[in-house]
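Subject: sequence -> structure tokens, single chain

Hey, anyone have a minute? Need the predicted structure for the following. Not urgent.
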Amino acid sequence: MHRLPRYSSSILSVALIASPGVYIWHTAGQQTNTKTTNVMTVGPTFQTLFAVPMTCDGCVKDISEALYKLKGISKVEANLQDQLVSVEGTVAPSAIVQAIQATGRDAILRGTGASNSAAVSILESYHLLGRKPIPAGPSDAVDEGARNVRGLARMVQVAPSLTLVDLTLRGISPGTYRATIREYGDLKDGASSTGPIWASKTPGSKPRGLLGTVQVGKDGRGSAFLDSPFQVWEVIGHAMVVSKQDESDGKPLKNDEDTVVGVIARSAGVWDNDKTVCSCTGKTLWEEREEEVKKGML
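Reply:
Had a minute. Here:
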């Protein structure tokens, strides 16, 4: 590796050229005049990979410096040729995306953790289910018009029995919400058909599906970085629900405006997903992102 000149004496970091167009940034001792930002961090370190539009070494510098301001980032590697940024640390992927966007660039999460260790759930509100006409189209589009995307949960397994959950919500009323994994993945009747909270292996013990709480502010947005003792494969196909509802009466959940639900599905690990154009739609990943943003997914 060849060492590059330091960009700034106030930020004691060093860029190492691993191969042409690939820059690995490490902190080199105590930083001065640079404050770290406290963000959501949990548990052991893990790797995340992001697609980021970059045109020059200056882009690498700006992004790397912005990420190292987040407490919990241990390594940043940028590849100009492939337009990818790899990050290692304990910071929630959603916080990393926000930090990159703050530099004036966009970012798309391309993978998290090792192969078969990541999952995702798109959280939707079903409160209009049965009230709106069913749109014409394929069977998997049934009642799509009656659903509104209100959040996203990303999961990554970082230890044999520890999974981190990066949860973001938007467009719901302020308050305290409880995140849970349910026994079933049946969304035929929205949250009402997902069954009780995923039970413990040991009778009488705390249900395994209790993830934790998230606070939603007056702007209708909330986020939480939670950890739970399960393996990703165990929850694939189950539903995830985030709701204010009190379930102490044992009755099924209702589909109100502040209850969101989605099925947990596998997602790509780091380096598992190298597509830049969708084979189904022919759209680039950036065109797909624009549609996701309009739907409220990101």
